[in-house]
Amino acid sequence: MNVIKYPKRADWSTILKRPTQTVDDIEATVNQVFDDVKRNGDTAIAKYTFMFDGVELESMIVSESEIEFASSHVSEELKKAIQLAKSNIEAFHKAQKTDKVFLQTQNGVECWQEKRPIQKVGLYIPGGTAPLFSTVLMLSVPATIAGCEEIVLCSPPNAEGKIANEILYTAQLCGVTKIVKVGGIQAIAGLTFGTDSIPQVYKVFGPGNQFVTVAKQLATKFGIAIDMPAGPSELLVVADDASNAKYVASDLLSQAEHGTDSQVILVSTSKQLIDDVSQEIESQLQALPRFEIAKKAIENSKSILVKSKEEALDLINEYGPEHFIICTSNDDYFVENVSNAGSVFIGNYTPESAGDYASGTNHTLPTNGFSKAYSGVNLDSFVKSITFQKISKEGIRNIGPSIELMAEAEGLQAHKNAVTLRLNDLN
To answer: Could you confirm whether 322 is annotated as catalytic?
Structure first.
């Protein structure tokens, strides 16, 4: 990792730059695929699946027999682990349910808010070098709790034209209604426009590479909602001499192995800790099966030495990390004052891996600084809030004159008339 000592605030934006391509580099390709899928449906989907994934499929739809086969080829030990994670994720997301909000704002004026599920949702599950069946849990569990009627899962096929057994097992366990062998830009385009094989949905969820991220953003131009911009994974650790260098290095590498475009950052007031962590990274890196991927990501990553915890906090909030680990002699300071982070992990015994899999929180989180404005996926991501109001004769008498005055002041006579006619009848 590159070590940066006591950087000036004026240089922070440059130092904290993500190792990602600009949207301009990607947008032309995404637009081309979207236009093709819009016009040619499944034919275009098949073309891009062959082009990008190198496979021709007889059918994009995963059959019941494929799901049964996949489920029988997942070990019982892993099934139990998935079920444990599912139980924790269910418990945490069920706890996020809220009751109907009801209030009489004035005599005769009743207002309330109720939540309704989004009827059709699309879940994007990355495949590629690491089939993320854990993301199936993170998206399908809250979708099922929310009561979404149609849950469509898209994931890229491997060279044999299959989706990983673990993804299929988890999908059927969690109530997914349709599974489609399609990935990348073409998957997001299919969910946006709908094809013979892929249902059109109202909202798309899930992480992906930079092409998927831009595709999701483009989908919003066609009236499709998205969970958030979620691109390459990232982690920031703030640590000092109270931390364990071995643990810190393992956490940094756990995110670095996601992909070559991942980024990890260590912020510390201790030069000794930075040196110790660097040595640990070199040692642990050698043993990783995904050595080349993690090594490339580490080359994009930085250790930043700062003068104080206050400066560290300012830098962290400026970066807005997806994952934020706190291992310091004063964890509470950072917990209480952090403003921009997707998910926070506190103390030496809270690895980021816990949130990725089984603690119960959701791992689908805003990246690329979007934690400054976006939340991670939660139960509310799968529902809409609808407001209701019911006004009695007494109620319209109470608020009607105010409505008339306000409408007239805005020059909206028909708005005023809608109240005046009622008041005249009552009087």
So the answer is: yes
Compute CA distances 25 → 29, 39, 206, 359, whole Å. Answer: 8, 24, 22, 37
The CATH superfamily of 23-230 is Nitrogenase molybdenum iron protein domain (3.40.50.1980)
Distance CA 114, CA 251 (A): 41
Query: Rounded to the nearest 5°, which phi and psi values hold at 10?
Result: -65, -20
Which residues, in sequence order, are CB contacts of 36 under 8 Å at separation 6+? 44, 47, 48, 189
Determine the pLDDT at residue 300: 86
Closest by CA position to 63, among listed 201, 171, 193: 171
Out of 280, 323, 352, 363, pick the active-site residue.
Answer: 323
Query: Nearest Cα to 325, choosing from 257, 227, 240?
Result: 240
CB 5 within 8 A of CB 305: yes
Q: Which residue has the tokens 């109907």?
A: 100
- Kindly name the residue from 234, 280, 322, 352 that is annotated as catalytic: 322
Per DSSP, the residues of 124-184 read E---TTS--HHHHHHHHHHHHHHT-SEEEEEE---TTS---HHHHHHHHHTT-SEEEE--H
> Per CATH, the architecture of 232-359 is what?
3-Layer(aba) Sandwich (3.40)
* Phi-psi category of residue 347: left, alpha or beta, with phi > 0 → left and psi -120 to 50 → alpha: left
Please give the pLDDT value at position 21.
59
pLDDT in tens, 232-279: 889 999 999 999 999 999 999 999 998 888 999 999 999 999 999 999
Residue in the block written with tokens 């404005």 = 373
The structural domains of the chain, with segments of one domain joined by +, span: 23-230, 232-359, 398-426
- What CA–CA distance (Å, rounded) separates 243 from 122? 40
The pLDDT assigned to 24 comes to: 75
Q: Are the C-beta atoms of 357 and 134 separated by less than 8 Å?
A: yes
Length of the chain measured in residues: 427
Q: Residue 116 pairs with which residues in a beta bridge?
A: 384
**Token pair for 61:** 């739809």
Tokens encoding 207? 């992480």
